[in-house]
């Protein structure tokens, strides 16, 4: 439940961080777009105004040029007319005077034309300078606005980056804390599950076989988890069954040789290795290199069969009839296909029965978990509503003490 709450908190923090980042990006993008649009409008208006003024200047320049050309044409026509008149009216004796006057008039016309052109150039230059200064001023203002927008955008980006780094660091620390909690919880859970499996086997043997002596091995000691000294009401010391429990995700084949060594040291007759994970290539209980490997759901059947075999073997030994032959016969039988098929049939039936029982148990656990989940959601919703009401009222409503009992009920496991 704690891991689940931590996961939900992690998801909530991630969702809030993502939402905050999206909102911040939308605000920045909206402001940048607005200012960029305003800046583009100003630049466009300035360009339109400049184009309009340039067009007016071009029109005026064309008009002045047309007037100058027309004035030159008129002057030339006048001069030409005067020359023609002078040629027709005066004689050759005054030709030099006419030519002098003509040159003088031409010079005057040129001077007038040059004055007009110079005046035009001066006017155009003054207007151009005024427009350039005005445009420079406007462009300088637009550049200042653009620079201010750029600086503000840069500052906002830096703030956002800093905030993002803080969020990432917070999320990293939170994830690390959650991972550490998960790892510690899993380590503790694996150890607890292993010890629970050992205690389960020991408790079953003590309850089921009351005449036997079940000797647990102290935690930390070398060797088995427990030893079963098989006894009946009439016979003692029929044999020893060696048990070892493994609750790991992978099966280590080196366990088998160590297991056999431990059996020899304990002088056990039969070894049963109860494991959560079966060896590679095995899907059910089986006899491997002198020991029997089975799951937690199969060991009860295996124990019953081997215990009965030890008792029968001891009876034959006690009877003293063909002792060696009977022992050999028993050994041959225990390693025969008939006994193997019998054991497989018993194990299959026991496995099917355990599977049905486990399925019923899982369904009950699932039903309880769903009820717990609904109860937790209800408690969270009620607490959230209470917090909202207290925040709105400024704390005048006061704490709802019954919520504490609801939290305790929500934490009930079962």
Total DSSP E strands: 6
Indicate the proportion of strand residues: 5-15%
- Taking pLDDT < 50 over at least 5 consecutive residues as the criterion, the unreliable ranges are 408-414
Largest sheet: 6 strands, mixed
Written overview of the protein:
The chain is α/β, with parallel strands linked by helices and 414 residues long. It folds into 3 domains: 2-181, no CATH class; 209-335, no CATH class; 362-410. 76% of the residues lie in helices and 7% in strands. It has 7 helices and 6 strands. The protein has a 6-stranded mixed sheet with strand order 1-2-3-4-6-5, sandwiched between helices. Helix 1 (2-89) packs antiparallel against helix 2 (95-208) and helix 4 runs antiparallel to helix 5 (323-334). The chain is rod-shaped. The two termini are 12 Å apart. The model is unreliable at 408-414 (pLDDT under 50).
In short:
This protein is an alpha/beta fold and 414 residues long. It has helices spanning 2-89, 95-208, 254-266, 299-319, 323-334, 337-393, 402-410, and strands spanning 213-216, 226-230, 239-246, 270-275, 286-288, 291-294.
């Amino acid at each position: 439940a704690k891991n689940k709450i931590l996961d939900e908190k992690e998801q909530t923090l991630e969702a809030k961080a993502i939402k905050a980042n999206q909102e911040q990006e939308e605000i920045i993008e909206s402001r940048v777009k607005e200012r960029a649009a305003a800046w583009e409008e100003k630049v466009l208006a300035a360009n339109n105004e400049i184009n309009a003024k340039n067009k007016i200047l071009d029109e005026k320049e064309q008009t002045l040029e047309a007037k100058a050309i027309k004035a030159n044409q008129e002057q030339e026509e006048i001069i030409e007319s005067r020359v023609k008149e002078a040629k027709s009216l005066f004689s050759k004796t005054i030709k030099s005077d006419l030519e002098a006057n003509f040159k003088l008039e031409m010079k005057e016309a040129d001077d007038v034309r040059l004055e007009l052109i110079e005046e035009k150039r001066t006017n155009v230059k003054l207007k151009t300078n005024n427009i350039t200064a005005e445009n420079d001023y406007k462009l300088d203002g637009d550049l200042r606005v653009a620079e201010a927008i750029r600086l503000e955008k840069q500052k906002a980006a830096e703030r956002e980056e800093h905030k993002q780094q803080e969020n990432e660091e917070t999320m990293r620390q939170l994830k690390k804390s959650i991972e550490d909690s998960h790892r510690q919880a899993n380590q503790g859970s694996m150890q607890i599950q292993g010890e629970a499996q050992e205690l389960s086997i020991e408790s079953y043997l003590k309850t089921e076989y009351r005449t036997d002596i079940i000797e647990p091995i102290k935690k930390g000691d070398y060797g088995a988890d427990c030893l079963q000294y098989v006894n009946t009401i009439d016979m003692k010391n029929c044999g020893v069954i060696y048990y070892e429990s493994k609750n790991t995700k992978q099966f280590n084949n080196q366990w088998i040789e160590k297991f056999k060594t431990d059996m020899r040291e304990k002088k056990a007759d039969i070894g049963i290795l109860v494991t959560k994970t079966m060896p590679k290539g095995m899907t059910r209980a089986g006899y491997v290199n002198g020991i029997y490997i089975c799951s937690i759901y199969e060991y009860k059947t295996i124990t019953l069969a081997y215990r009965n075999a030890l008792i029968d073997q001891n009876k034959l030994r006690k009877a003293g009839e063909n002792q060696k032959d009977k022992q050999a016969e028993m050994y041959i039988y225990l390693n025969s296909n008939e006994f193997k098929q019998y054991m497989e049939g018993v194990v299959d039936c026991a496995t099917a029965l355990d599977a049905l029982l486990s399925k019923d148990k899982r369904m009950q656990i699932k039903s309880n978990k769903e009820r717990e989940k609904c109860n937790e959601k209800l408690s969270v919703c009620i607490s959230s509503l209470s917090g909202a009401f207290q925040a709105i009222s400024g704390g005048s409503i006061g704490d709802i003490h019954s919520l504490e009992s609801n939290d305790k009920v929500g934490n009930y496991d079962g």
